[in-house]
Every structure is written in structure tokens, then in C-alpha cells.
Backbone:
């Protein structure tokens, strides 16, 4: 062959390489073979075009009559199966013909005229492609309509249709599918070599047949024969080959037999042509390719072009700058990155991206990987890895342990079946493939169905190659559950019911931190509850309280496999997760976590990962560092942490003595860790409660993952984690600028940067950060781990594994390969639990207190570190904090912040809440009534609110309500004639106005209360509510045995008297009260309110207070006529059970002294009392121990339960003070008193050795206890002076109520640090009320009563008739009537404003004689 001979310009169909034969036909354009092939292709193309034209002229009746364009046709109007099949046959034939025409045109141009640019050809191709796409979509709609017509009665049709609609909504565009197809063939080039080889052999055979023609001229006329031309038409072979490629790839993905497989052991690179690029060849094999870019000649750039280039360059620079910022931001970690993101207003881009699943392994490759193991990926490990433990033995930390052949064989069988189930599940979303899939009895039969279009196979192939992780997980679950449906869980989560008060309190307290949706949802719940307590609330719960679930459980047969209509909601077994980890080898645990259905599954998955159960290289990075792993083992899963507070903090100050001006630049940062814990779990509840009690070390915020509710959070001023101050002058005179604080912005940014998310919402989001800035991270970590251990009640190192015993008993470790696997049924193997509990094991525990490592056999060494693990002091405290666990220790209970009347009062006054609740109830009723007038529903039950507008409308609890007995009595007075003298008396005390002739009653209606509330002094409302809250909290904190029961009995008696209706017509007691008011110079109609703290009046509640005081004292004067209505209560059915109470038997009461500690304060106790505590202090100094580590255990056992009770009552609170004696002045200690031997009680040491507080030295009016009056001699003197004949003076000993450990006197926030103390667990606390151990606490109470009694000094003859010693008041009367008047006045003066002091009736003795006083124990008079 010479250089002048023409070469064939055709390109081989088999491999896309140019033909090298001599051109002899078609004007020397082609060789003989390609000439015939080109002619055959042309003839076939013309024939198919003719068929296509004929098909367009022969439409089915429905399409011919339809006026809707095919692209918009839904076929919903076709009601006949035959018509549907005729339309389908026509459209399918048109679709196939269009495909062949398009392929023929492309082949003809690409392989025979590749160098010619024919724009008309491309335009025509685009038209045909658009038409083919319309026909394809019409086929899909027709298949959907056909399926609806045929399977409409089938149960599974609706959910299959939902899957199809979801697929259609997320379907890729055709152009993108073409690119994906090319990439698909590129990835699987080696797998397609067999088919390529077969194509080449077939084409070579045709070429040889062409050379066997002896005489070309004799057969040239054959070109005119269409039959012969059809023999050379390659389009049918190309179409079949295209379809076969998809089928072969699907079979390859499903591990089914294919046409030919390469030997895995051969070097595939030797079989490829060195001059050809495999990826390029495979891209050429695809028939549907993108239009080639046009080649243009280079021209000089015009000005416009240069300008465009310059603009492009500018944009490029800006993009580069933006990219650099993103790179810089990505390199930042922790809180630095959070601040940068907040500044840039970063947004959440989406869910965690799926790993690369394109490299699908063959069975032999997977077997090799499992047999040999793979190297572990430690790229994301941040902390130290501890090797040589029972979880990570030596030899297993670098490479996954190999699996045994038997286990591999079992896995391969399961994975083959899972792949088929996965394929069948993916078919559900393809409407055009569903009928064929339902017809087929196997996957092979389905793939052999000739009616399946190649484009559908292409879409399916792309889907099968890269299934979602969710699909893989569902398929693994399908294998396990088989043909049996899952048992539906009866206990469905609903929204926790909140009272109206709780909703308002929550919004006031944490509204600035939580999502607004919580408040709106719960207010809707309240409205439904008010509208109809049964139906409305049930409907609300149904709509809002539950996650939507699919109705019904059903399955469908796809290719002979049963596919359920729902993803498995149950926890997948460990075998299922093992199959998943092997199949999704590129996945890491961050992805797998998202697929967990609940916390149990998530926790189990983490446990198996820690014990190296999964042979996956990427799963090892999850919690492999020892610090994180320890948190995981204890149930805390952090997803964000920044332990670089010391690195972020700086203190730069220039003093005044330098050459520069005084200036400062200070940054303070705190360590922080954020994680998830199980929701409604007893361990979680205990841990979070422990953390809330350690505000001196760490701060806690808890957010409910299900509702978004903030359950607890520190005070707003402590939410910051980074703050800064900078400027000239002294730093102390400059204010801090908060740079970063925990709140909604922080929540959002952390959610963006986190690496993993849970696929369920049954968790708590827990935020923990340092209280003290600039600290190392280890102290914070140690506190968290210590509290977690105690929450799990770990009493010894071995207990760390106890809660995992059921899992450990089902696993074993191969002694040779170190592979952890499941124990097979009936197998006799050593379980991991037996390995853990082996007595030869050695446990090493770090004692951070004494800086040493403790070595044990699994038992605790209490003598060296008594507080390292859960101990008897912790148990004693838990009995108080979690008393409900006495019934069941592992109850599913939600965590709730400590709530009591005092904490609720600090948020919103109770009066305001009651009014808002009642107003909401009335408004809701009115709204319902209006709708009821418009539309009556007989099924509605409105009985809940029946009669609410009647005369018996319920009384609203409010401060202006008057006792019922008083209302009845004044009604009787109003009905009777009132003399002019008595009218003047009533006018003087304000019970009768100038314009009215009747005594005013109380305010009970909502309108009147609203009106009063608007006009009332806000401080008055606050103090009134505060008094009621304080009293409730005081008695909850009264730890004297039997005291709370006695108080409850007193309240029932008094409440019964005041709330009962008067049965007698006697109103003498009313006039007695009126006379007392007149004597004291008080009025009942005060409109003003005194803000003076020491003032007892004026205020509008004089009537309520004086009536209550009279009733309290009247019960001790049963023989007086004016006390008869009160005494008659004990004759009633309700009061008869209190007739014989010890309250009315003073002699018997006086015989038993209260079983409580004395009131003596720290300052006045003898030094001997503190000797044992001083020894502890000296011991800690000598050994350089922290005091809490030397604190006697028996003291902790006694003290901590007492503190817990006071904490629950709201008497003490965790202090926002560093737990250091340089900041906190006091210590809680335990000791015994001589009158209570063997009974340890709580006492406070306020020696303040480090001078944390500067106490005042000179206090005006200070009087020491030895200067107080002695009561008994004064009583004797009064009796001797006023006794004559039968008239003998009467006495009363009134004791103002106080608890064993505190007085009912509030301490302002600014003074509470002076009462702060540290307990035996190194927690800092503050008293909200004056502790009896505080400096000069006795004088504080003495002075308070002195100032109050002096308000009525003239009337009461204070110092003569009324004398007090500390909280004991001696009242002396000439007779019973006189004494009643004085004790009523004294009781009123003590109990009125600020309404939180009471007379303790059980420790008071009213209406007694001198002989009784002389027989009392001195305790009662001190």
C-alpha cells in the first residue's frame, strides 16, 4: 500500500478506532466492509423513518380524539383496559422506533462522516430526542394509570405510588443521566472488557465475510437490494448490545453470572491496548453522547473580549479570596470557628454527604478483604489511644481482625440475598418497570423481559450502582424480618402535657433561648384542653403529639421477593449491622448513626464498635481516643467540644508606672463540650441533676431533642463562653463585652459544624461548660466523668461493664485472630463477659486527687479513694433527690429542673398566672360558644363548662378574696339593724363607706380581679405572692420529725374554719374584730401600699389578715361567746376528726421537746464543738489534700441528705461561686449536740479562714443574747400585780415559726455570698434565707420582731404586756377576753405584710396560767 492510496474514513463500531483499510467504494470514502455497513444503515434508517411516519398517521382512537398534548396527557379519562393496552402498544412502538432512528442517525454521522459538521443533522436529532422524551414520560404516566386501573384494589398500590411520586420529584434531568451513564461505564471499564471483546470478534467475522466476495462488480447491484442491505444494518446489534451492557452491569452489581468475567488474578492492564485510553473508549461506547464542542480558529481579542477577560479575572480573584476565607474558616476549630461563622451568617447546607459507593466489590474481592483484614483509618482521632485494654488488645489497633471462613461464607450468602432485596426495593420507585417486576418470578426473568426499555435499564443501573445507605439498611432489615410483619409498638410518643402555669413560666424563664414553636404548640394544647377536656385534647394529641406513621402493614411480591411497605422501625440486630458494614465499606459510623431508629440501637451500635465487632476501617475513628470512649461507655456522646480555653485567653495589662499610659487587653474563654444523652432515662436524669448542683465548677444547659424545650439553663449573665475588655485606664472600671454566648446562634452554628447527627429525636442535647474561665480542660472532663460514674451508680471498676452484661454474654473473641463475633446457638465458647470478670484481670484507675494509679482486681479501694466511686453518701442523697426510684430504680422518667414555689415565684407572680389562666379559659369558652351558635354539632360534649355563667360561678383564687365565714357573717350583719354607734365604728375602720349602708364583701369575679390587678401596686402583688411561696417553701424545708404533718393538720383546721359557712346567727366575733381594728387604729379600705420594708401597713388585705389571726387564736378560747363560730367547726363532720388533736392539749405537748438542733449560731458555740472539724482541716494542710477528700464519710452521709431536702424546698441553691475557700466563706459540717446524742445534724462553719468576706464590725442596735429579757420573772411579776380574787391573769407564749436550720427571713441577692458554703462533695451553695449558724443570726431575728412589735408599741404596751426573746413572744392579759384581744393583735402584726412569718401554733401555748409557765422546760421560753 502506497501513501497515495485513499484510506477508509469510517470508524469501527466495536472499539471506536479509525479503520486502516484501503477505501475502494463510495468514491473512495470507505472500504468494502464499511461501504456495505453504511449503506445498510442508511436503508434501515429510511425504512424506520417510514414506519415512524405511518405510526403517526395510525393513532389509537383515544389519542386521535384527545385535544390534550401528549406531554400533558395523564390518561385519567381512559376507563378500559383494552384501550390502555392499545395506547401502550402504540407508544412503546413509537418509543422504540424513535430510539432506533436517533441511534441510526448518530451512528451514521459519528462512524462514517466524523469530520463533517452538519448543523441540520444535530437540530433534527434534538427534535427527535425531545419527542422521544415526551413519549417516554407519556409511557410512565400510562404505566401509572394502568397500574392504578389494575391494582387499585390492591392494598400496596398507594404506598408504591408514593414511592414513585417521590422518585419523580427527585429525578435527574436527561442530560445529567447521560453524564452519569458515561461515568458509570468509565468506572466499570474492566468489567466491560468481555463484551467489548465479543463485539470486536463479531465485527471481524463480518469483515472476513466481505473479503470472500470474489467479484465486487458482480454483486454491486446488491446494493439496491433492501433485503441484503438489512443484513448489514448494525442498529439492531447496537441496540441489543446497549441493553446487554446494562443487564450485565446489573448482574455484576448483584453478584449474578454474567456473559464473561475477567480473571481476578490477571493483570488487567496487560490486556488493554497501550495506545488507547480505556476511559475514553468507554465514553465512546455510549450511544447517547453530548454534542461535541465546536473547534474555532484563534482570533485576536477585541476590546470587549479583553474587558470580559478582565472582568472574569476580577471575579476569579474575588472567588479566590472567598475560597481562602472558607479555607481559613475550615482550619479554625472550636469556638473560634463558631464566632467566624456567626459573623459570616453561615447556614446549614444539608445533611451529611453519602460516602463514595461506586467501587462495588466482587464476591472474591470482598472475601479477600474480610479474610486478610484492612488497615484502620485514624484520620479523625483527636485524643490518646489506649492499646492493650480488653476492648483493644495488642495486635488489633492497626488492622481489622480477619474473619473465619465459615463466617465469611455465611456473610456472602446473606449479602447475595440482601442485594436481591435491595434491587427489588429500588424497583418500587420506577413506574414503568413495576408491572414487569410484579409479573416476574425472579430477577433473571425480569431482566430478560424484552418489553423493558434500555433507558429504564439505564436508570435502574445507575440506581443499583449507588443505592442510598437508607436503602441498604432497609434491605438488611428485610432479610432479618422475612415474611413476618413487625409488631407495632403500642406506646407511641406524645407531647408531654404542660399546665398553663408551666407554659407561662417556661416562656418567661427561657423564652429567649428556645424556639418559638414550643410556646405556640403548648398554648394550642391549653386551648384545646379548655375547649373540651376530653375530645379537644385527644384530637390535639392526635394531630400534634405523634410522629406520622404509615397506615397498615402490607407487602408486595417483586421478582418473587416479599417487600414490605415500610422501613423497619425496630432496632436492627448486630448481624444486620455487620452485613451493612461489610456492604457499605466506604461508610463510617457517622453515616450509620443517622440510620438508627432509636437510642437503644444507637447505643448498641456504639458498643459493638468499641469492641471491634465490625471489620470496617472507617468505623474505628468513632470514639477510639480514650477520653471520648470513656464518655461513650457512660452514655454521653459529644459532638462538639473546645478544650482550648487557656490558649484562647490572654491577660495583657500595662501599669501606671511604665512609660506608656495604663491600658489593658483581656480575653477570657471557657472550655465547652456538647453532646447527646438518652431522653427520659433514669441515668440521664441523675447525671443532669448532679451537674445542676455543681454550678461552682460547670454550667449546664439541657434542650429536649423532641420538643425543643429548654429544660434547664444557667442565669443569663453566665451564658457567655468568651468575653473581652480592652481600653485605657484600669480594667476594673471597664465593662466586659460578651463575644460568644450559648444561645440560638450558638445552637445553629454548632449544628452546622458537627460531624454526625442522630436519625431520631428521643434524646437530650446537653451543653456543659466551665464556670471559671481560663481553666485547663481536664478538670471539666474529670467532673463530667465522675458524675457519670455516680449516675450509673458504679461502686467499683468492674461495674463499668455491668450494664453491658447482656451484650457481652452474646459475644466471644477468637484467641488466634482476636476477632470479636457473635456466639452461635449451642456453641460452647468463652464469652466476653467471662473475659471481663476473669479474676486474673487487673484494673487500673487514675486517682487524680493523689496523682497516682490504683491497681485492683475490679473491686474499689475505699481506703485510698473513698469518693472516687458511688458511695453510701451518694446513695443517701439519691434517696431524697430521686425518691420515686424506691419503687423502680430504672423508670423512664424525664429530667426536670428543680421546681418549687420559690423558684417559680422568681419567674412570674402566681397571681398573674392565675388571672391569665382564668382569662384564657373564659375567652376560649366565649370563642367556642360563638362557633356553637353558628354550627351545632350534636356529637360535641360541652358538659365540662356547664353552668359556668350561673350564680354559682366558681370563685377565683386571688388576694382580694375574703374568707367564707366572714362573708356569711357580714351578710348577717347587713341584714340586721346596725346602730348609729356601730356604723360610726364601721366607718372608722373602713368597712362602711360614706355612700353605702352595707359592709363590703370580697372580690371573686374575673372582671373585678382583672380590674384590681391593673390598678394594684405591682410590688404589692409580688410581695403577696412571695409570702405564700415562701411559707410553702419554708415548711418543705422544715426537717424536724413530724413538723410537716403537724403544720398540714393546722392548715386543714384553719382552712376548714375560714372556708366553712357560719351555722350560728351570732356575729359577736365580727364586732370583736372591728373593735380590735379600731383599738389598733387600722382601716380595711387602704388603697395605697407602703414600699417601706419595715412597715406592716397600709395595704388592702387588712381584713383577710385580721380574720385569719382571730381564727387562729379563737380556737384556744372555747368558752368565750365571741369564739363560738370557730369552736363550732369541731362539731361538724369535717372538724370532728380534729377534736382530740394534741394542739389543744398544751400539757401533753409541753412534755415532749422538739427533736431538732438548737438555734445557737456559729459565733456562740464552744470551741470544743468544732474540735473534730479542726482536726480535718489540719490533716488536709499537712497532707496537702483537698478538704473534700479528707471529709469524713459519716458526715457526708448525714449532711448531704439534709442539704438535698433544703435544695428541693428552695431554701438553698447552688451558688455561682467558684468552689474555693478564697471565695466561699463557709463549710458544711456534721456534729452532735448534748441533748441529741448519736444524732448528727447539719452545722455551718463560718470561720472564714481565707477572709473571703468582709463582715461589718459595728452594727447599730446590736444586742447579745445574754442581754435579752428573761420571760418567766416578768410573767410572775405581772401575775402578782394583777391577781385579785377570782380574776387571775392569763398568758400566751407565741413562738414565731422557724425551721431547725434557718429563720423565715430572706437574704438579698447581693448579700448571699456571705452565707455561701462548701459541702462535703466540694459543691458551693448559698442560703436564700438566714441560716441559724450565720454570724449574729439570733440578733437578726430578735431585731426583726422588735421592729415589728414597736409598730404597735402604744396599743400593745410592748415591754409591759408584750415582751419577746428572740422568736418567742410573751403576751399577758388580765383575763381571757383581754388576752384574746392582745394575742390576736400580736398574731396579726407578725403575720401581716410581708406575709411570710407565722405563729407556730404547735410550739405556742395560748390561754395558760402562771403555774403552767412555771412548769415548762426552759427551752419553751428561750
Residues:
Amino acid at each position: 500500500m502506497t501513501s497515495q492510496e485513499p484510506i477508509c474514513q469510517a470508524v469501527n463500531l466495536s472499539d471506536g478506532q479509525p479503520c486502516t483499510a484501503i477505501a475502494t467504494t463510495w468514491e473512495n470514502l470507505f472500504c468494502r466492509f464499511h461501504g456495505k455497513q453504511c449503506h445498510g444503515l442508511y436503508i434501515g434508517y429510511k425504512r424506520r423513518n417510514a414506519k415512524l411516519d405511518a405510526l403517526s398517521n395510525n393513532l389509537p382512537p383515544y389519542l386521535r380524539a384527545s385535544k390534550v398534548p401528549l406531554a400533558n396527557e395523564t390518561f385519567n379519562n381512559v376507563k378500559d383496559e383494552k384501550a390502555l393496552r392499545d395506547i401502550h402498544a402504540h407508544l412503546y412502538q413509537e418509543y422504540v422506533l424513535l430510539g432506533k432512528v436517533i441511534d441510526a442517525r448518530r451512528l451514521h454521522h459519528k462512524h462514517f462522516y466524523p469530520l463533517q459538521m452538519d448543523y441540520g443533522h444535530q437540530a433534527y436529532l434534538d427534535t427527535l430526542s425531545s419527542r422521544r422524551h415526551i413519549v417516554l414520560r407519556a409511557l410512565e404516566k400510562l404505566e401509572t394509570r394502568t397500574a392504578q386501573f389494575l391494582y387499585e384494589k390492591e392494598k400496596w398500590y398507594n404506598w408504591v405510588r408514593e414511592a414513585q411520586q417521590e422518585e419523580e420529584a427527585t429525578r435527574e434531568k436527561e442530560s445529567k443521566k447521560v453524564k452519569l451513564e458515561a461515568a458509570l461505564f468509565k468506572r466499570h471499564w474492566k468489567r466491560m472488557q468481555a463484551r467489548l471483546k465479543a463485539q470486536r470478534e463479531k465485527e471481524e467475522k463480518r469483515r472476513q465475510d466481505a473479503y470472500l466476495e470474489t467479484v465486487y462488480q458482480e454483486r454491486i447491484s446488491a446494493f439496491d437490494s433492501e433485503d441484503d442491505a438489512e443484513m448489514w444494518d448494525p442498529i439492531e446489534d447496537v441496540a441489543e448490545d446497549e441493553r446487554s451492557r446494562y443487564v450485565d452491569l446489573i448482574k455484576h452489581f448483584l453478584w449474578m453470572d454474567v456473559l464473561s468475567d475477567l480473571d481476578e488474578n490477571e493483570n488487567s492492564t496487560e490486556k488493554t491496548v497501550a495506545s488507547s485510553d480505556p476511559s475514553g473508549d468507554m465514553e465512546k461506547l455510549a450511544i447517547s453522547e453530548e454534542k461535541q464542542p465546536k473547534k474555532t480558529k484563534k482570533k485576536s481579542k477585541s476590546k470587549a473580549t479583553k474587558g470580559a477577560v478582565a472582568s472574569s479575572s476580577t471575579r476569579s480573584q474575588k472567588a479566590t479570596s472567598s475560597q481562602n476565607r472558607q479555607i481559613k474558616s475550615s482550619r479554625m476549630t472550636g469556638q473560634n470557628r463558631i464566632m467566624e461563622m456567626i459573623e459570616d451568617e453561615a447556614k446549614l447546607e444539608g445533611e451529611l454527604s453519602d460516602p463514595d459507593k461506586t467501587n462495588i466489590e466482587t464476591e472474591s474481592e470482598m472475601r479477600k478483604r474480610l479474610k486478610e483484614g484492612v488497615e484502620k483509618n485514624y484520620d479523625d482521632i483527636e485524643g490518646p489511644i489506649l492499646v492493650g485494654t480488653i476492648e483493644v488488645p495488642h495486635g488489633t489497633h492497626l488492622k481489622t481482625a480477619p474473619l473465619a471462613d465459615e463466617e465469611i461464607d455465611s456473610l456472602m450468602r446473606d449479602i447475595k440475598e440482601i442485594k436481591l432485596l435491595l434491587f427489588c426495593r429500588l424497583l418500587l420507585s420506577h413506574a414503568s418497570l413495576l408491572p414487569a417486576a410484579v409479573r416476574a418470578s425472579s430477577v433473571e426473568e425480569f431482566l430478560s423481559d424484552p418489553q423493558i426499555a434500555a433507558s429504564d435499564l439505564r436508570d435502574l443501573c445507575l440506581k443499583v450502582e449507588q443505592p442510598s445507605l437508607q436503602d441498604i439498611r432497609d434491605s438488611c432489615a428485610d432479610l432479618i424480618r422475612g415474611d413476618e410483619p413487625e409488631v407495632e409498638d403500642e406506646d407511641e410518643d406524645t407531647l408531654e402535657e404542660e399546665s398553663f402555669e408551666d407554659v407561662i413560666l417556661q416562656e418567661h424563664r427561657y423564652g429567649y433561648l428556645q424556639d418559638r414553636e414550643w410556646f405556640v404548640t403548648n398554648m394550642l394544647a391549653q386551648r384545646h384542653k379548655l375547649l373540651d377536656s376530653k375530645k379537644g385534647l385527644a384530637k390535639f394529641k392526635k394531630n400534634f403529639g405523634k410522629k406520622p406513621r404509615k397506615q397498615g402493614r402490607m407487602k408486595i411480591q417483586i421478582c418473587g421477593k416479599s417487600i414490605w411497605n415500610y422501613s423497619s422501625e425496630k432496632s436492627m440486630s448486630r448481624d444486620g449491622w455487620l452485613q451493612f458494614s461489610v456492604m457499605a465499606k466506604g461508610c463510617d459510623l457517622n453515616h450509620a448513626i443517622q440510620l438508627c431508629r432509636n437510642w437503644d440501637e444507637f447505643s448498641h451500635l456504639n458498643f459493638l464498635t468499641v469492641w471491634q465487632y465490625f471489620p470496617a476501617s472507617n468505623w474505628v475513628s468513632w470514639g477510639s481516643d480514650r477520653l471520648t470512649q470513656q464518655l461513650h461507655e457512660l452514655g454521653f456522646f459529644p459532638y462538639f467540644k473546645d478544650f482550648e480555653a487557656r490558649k484562647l485567653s490572654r491577660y495583657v495589662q500595662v501599669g501606671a508606672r511604665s512609660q506608656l499610659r495604663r491600658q489593658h487587653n483581656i480575653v477570657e474563654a471557657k472550655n465547652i463540650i456538647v453532646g447527646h444523652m438518652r431522653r427520659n432515662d433514669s441515668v440521664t436524669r441523675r447525671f443532669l441533676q448532679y451537674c445542676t448542683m455543681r454550678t461552682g465548677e460547670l454550667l449546664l444547659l439541657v434542650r429536649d431533642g423532641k420538643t425543643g424545650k429548654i429544660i434547664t439553663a444557667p442565669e443569663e449573665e453566665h451564658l457567655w463562653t468568651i468575653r473581652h475588655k480592652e481600653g485605657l485606664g484600669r480594667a476594673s472600671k471597664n465593662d466586659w463585652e460578651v463575644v460568644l454566648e450559648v444561645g440560638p446562634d450558638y445552637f445553629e452554628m454548632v449544628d452546622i459544624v458537627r460531624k454526625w447527627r442522630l436519625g431520631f429525636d428521643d434524646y437530650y442535647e446537653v451543653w456543659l461548660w466551665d464556670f471559671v474561665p481560663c481553666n485547663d480542660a481536664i478538670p471539666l472532663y474529670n467532673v463530667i466523668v465522675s458524675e457519670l460514674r455516680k449516675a450509673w451508680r458504679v461502686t467499683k471498676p468492674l461495674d463499668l461493664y455491668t450494664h453491658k452484661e447482656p451484650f457481652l454474654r452474646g459475644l466471644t473473641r477468637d484467641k488466634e485472630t482476636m476477632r470479636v463475633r457473635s456466639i452461635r446457638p449451642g456453641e460452647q465458647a468463652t464469652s466476653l463477659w467471662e473475659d471481663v470478670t476473669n479474676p486474673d484481670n487487673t484494673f487500673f484507675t487514675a486517682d487524680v486527687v493523689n496523682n497516682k494509679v490504683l491497681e485492683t482486681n475490679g473491686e474499689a479501694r475505699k481506703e485510698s479513694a473513698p469518693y472516687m466511686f458511688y458511695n453510701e453518701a451518694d446513695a443517701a442523697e439519691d434517696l431524697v433527690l430521686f425518691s420515686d426510684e424506691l419503687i423502680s430504680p430504672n423508670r423512664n422518667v424525664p429530667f426536670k429542673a428543680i421546681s418549687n414555689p420559690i423558684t417559680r415565684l422568681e419567674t412570674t407572680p402566681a397571681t398573674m398566672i392565675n388571672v391569665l389562666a382564668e382569662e384564657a379559659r373564659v375567652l376560649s369558652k366565649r370563642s367556642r360558644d360563638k362557633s356553637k351558635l353558628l354550627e351545632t354539632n350534636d356529637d360535641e360534649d360541652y358538659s365540662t363548662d356547664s353552668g359556668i355563667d350561673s350564680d354559682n360561678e366558681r370563685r377565683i383564687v386571688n388576694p382580694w378574696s375574703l374568707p367564707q365565714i366572714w362573708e356569711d357573717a357580714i351578710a348577717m350583719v347587713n341584714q340586721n339593724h346596725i346602730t348609729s354607734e356601730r356604723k360610726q365604728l364601721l366607718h372608722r375602720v373602713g368597712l362602711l363607706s360614706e355612700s353605702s349602708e352595707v359592709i363590703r364583701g370580697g372580690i371573686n369575679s374575673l372582671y373585678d380581679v382583672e380590674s384590681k390587678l391593673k390598678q394594684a401596686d405591682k410590688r404589692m402583688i409580688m410581695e403577696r405572692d412571695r409570702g405564700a411561696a415562701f411559707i410553702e417553701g419554708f415548711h418543705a424545708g422544715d426537717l424536724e420529725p413530724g413538723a410537716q404533718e403537724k403544720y398540714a393538720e393546722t392548715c386543714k383546721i384553719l382552712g376548714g374554719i375560714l372556708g366553712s359557712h357560719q351555722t350560728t346567727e351570732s356575729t359577736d366575733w365580727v364586732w370583736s374584730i372591728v373593735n380590735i381594728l379600731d383599738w389598733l387604729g387600722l382601716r380595711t379600705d387602704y388603697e395605697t401600699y407602703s414600699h417601706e420594708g419595715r412597715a406592716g401597713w397600709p395595704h388592702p388585705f387588712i381584713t383577710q389578715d385580721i380574720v385569719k389571726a382571730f381564727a387562729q387564736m379563737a380556737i384556744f378560747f372555747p368558752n368565750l361567746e365571741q369564739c363560738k363560730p370557730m369552736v363550732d367547726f369541731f362539731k361538724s363532720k369535717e372538724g370532728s376528726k380534729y377534736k382530740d388533736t394534741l394542739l389543744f392539749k398544751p400539757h401533753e405537748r409541753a412534755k415532749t421537746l422538739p427533736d431538732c438542733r438548737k438555734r445557737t449560731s456559729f459565733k456562740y458555740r464552744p470551741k470544743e464543738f468544732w474540735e473534730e472539724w479542726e482536726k480535718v482541716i489540719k490533716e488536709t494542710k499537712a497532707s496537702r489534700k483537698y478538704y473534700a477528700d479528707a471529709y469524713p464519710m459519716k458526715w457526708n452521709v448525714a449532711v448531704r441528705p439534709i442539704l438535698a431536702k433544703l435544695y428541693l424546698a428552695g431554701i438553698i441553691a447552688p451558688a455561682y461561686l467558684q468552689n474555693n475557700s478564697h471565695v466561699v466563706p463557709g463549710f458544711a459540717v456534721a456534729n452532735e449536740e448534748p441533748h441529741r446524742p448519736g444524732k448528727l445534724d447539719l452545722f455551718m462553719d463560718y470561720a472564714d479562714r481565707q477572709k473571703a468576706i468582709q463582715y461589718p464590725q459595728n452594727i447599730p442596735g446590736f444586742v447579745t443574747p445574754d442581754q435579752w429579757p428573761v420571760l418567766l420573772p416578768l410573767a410572775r411579776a405581772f401575775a402578782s400585780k394583777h391577781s385579785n380574787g377570782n380574776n387571775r391573769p392569763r398568758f400566751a407564749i407565741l413562738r414565731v415559726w422557724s425551721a431547725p436550720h434557718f429563720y423565715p427571713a430572706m437574704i438579698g441577692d447581693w448579700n448571699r455570698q456571705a452565707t455561701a458554703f462548701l459541702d462535703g462533695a466540694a459543691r458551693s451553695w448559698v442560703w436564700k434565707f438566714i441560716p441559724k449558724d450565720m454570724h449574729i443570726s439570733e440578733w437578726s431575728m430578735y431585731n426583726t420582731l422588735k421592729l415589728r412589735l414597736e409598730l404597735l408599741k402604744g396599743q400593745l404596751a410592748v415591754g409591759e404586756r408584750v415582751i419577746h426573746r428572740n422568736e418567742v413572744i410573751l403576751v399577758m392579759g388580765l383575763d381571757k377576753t383581754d388576752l384574746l384581744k392582745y394575742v390576736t393583735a400580736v398574731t396579726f402584726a407578725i403575720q401581716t405584710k410581708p406575709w411570710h412569718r407565722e405563729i407556730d401554733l404547735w410550739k405556742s401555748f395560748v390561754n395558760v396560767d402562771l403555774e403552767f409557765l412555771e412548769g415548762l422546760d426552759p427551752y419553751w421560753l428561750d
